[in-house]
Amino acid sequence: MRVLDPQSALLTNAEVYQFLKTKKPGVPEAKSGAYPSTNLHGQQTILKDVSFVLENAAKFNSYTEEVTSHVKTQPDVNSWISELVKKLKAYGLTKTEALNLINIGVGMRPSGQDQVNGDDEQEVGPDDEAEMARDVQFFKVVVEEADERFPGDDGDERIRDVIITMKSCVSGHSGND
Description:
Shape: elongated
Low-confidence stretches: 112-121
Order of helices and strands: HHHHHHHHH
């Protein structure tokens, strides 16, 4: 994993997921001649926390599978995030807003069933409109003063353009896994 901007101190969910996926759990090697630590301060708290985690591991795994489903389908993060952030800056979005939109998954969820008619044009179904409406609502929550920054009908069209740009950037790199 490569940190895009060390000064931003913000990672996307996809970057964190990829890091955790490649990180192998294990015990660090002991230094030569080192003695094991005898400090038992907080042992009861640790045992309590570990037992809680073990008891709730199944719930946690099912939760993370549900929450990260769109993250797993995203292509390699190094190939598209910086490009997408640059494209979104053209719409006046800050890097933090762009990364938050990526983390929420605005425009990132797979569309599932793309229907194509005889003219090679995609039909827009009610599911696509509902997904776009949901993404627009998320956009307005994440972007500060979205109504003032994107006023009127022209602003709604620009918000839709941002979401379409996000979809096209991810789908354009989906073959680079």
